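Re: the request from the purification team.
They wanted to know what the chain is likely to look like in 3D before they choose a buffer screen. I agreed to run a prediction and write the result into the notebook, where they can find it.
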Amino acid sequence: MNKIKTEDFETILSAYGDKFAKLRGCSVLVTGATGMISTYLSEFLLYISDSLNIQLFLQCRNINKAKKLFKDYLDKENFHLMNFDFENNEIPDIRFDYVLHAASPASTSAFEKAPVDVISPNVIGTWYLLQHAKRKGIIKFLVFSSGSVYGQSEKGKTSIAEEDYGVIDPLWYRSCYVESKRLSEQMGMAFWKQYNIPSSFVRICHTYGPTFDLEKDLRIVPRIIKQILNEEDITIYKDPNSVAQYTYVADIISAVLLVLLEGESGGAYNACGDDIVKIDDVIDWMVHADPDIHSKMVEKEIDENYKFGKNSGTLFPKFSNRKLTELGWRQLYTPKDGFARIVRCYMEDNQKICGGVIT
């Protein structure tokens, strides 16, 4: 296994290992197991599965992609790779002790071009999975939700806690994701209230880690990684207020599992770190992650192509992680360390550069 990932997994175990004993002898289903966060989660669960005798079921749409991602584990007797269609209620007749429902497109291009495909796993899929849990029984059902459910906060608000909500335009193109995530939470709450199906909700905020799909993911961090691997300079607009609240995926994984194992039924938890970081700092940390990196950051003045107003950037209220810390969670990685780790992880995986293309 990759050295960086192994170090991450051992760090998580050192911090929270006693919590994971609740998984001993249990069956665990992860839907959407090839996503950026769920891949890392699945690898961690595979890492601890033998010592805890976990039967791990990973559901995915693209079985070939999954076999490539989890190639080192295909022969494990307690590992089950599946591509059943839960959106059509084609769920195997298995009792899963824990369900982590992570299946959902989350890209802007999907919101624009395939909104029905965004809504379906969050709404129809959640419905059928909860119905399955009602029939077979379950210890905990966890919905992977999003910080986007809060909508547009009121002007001047500096912090967003789990009880805060803003305005959402139901006809905005991105609302297919936001509204379907909101409804998936409400369905989990309804099944908890009416049928006693224990459900919790983890509202995941901006996450980065070494499981990006560099060929398809067009967001800024995977774009930068690809440019570094291709030894290209990185151009950024000169805006000191362009910021984001990023959290390293290893910290997100520990948050997800703590909510699964310790979170109250019917409870929602923000999964996020403590830090608001500047985008130019992020790039600087990444290009200085290793002495073998030849890329440089190049700043240019804001022009008419900059999609944010000058000196406004992506400023937003800070998500509160108070409820999460009350479960015993703490941030293990600083942003500077985390962003350097993901670059070194991709470099360690020996991604070769040929003709300017990652191969």
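For the purification team: The chain has one domain: 3-210+248-274+317-333.
Please add any questions underneath this entry.
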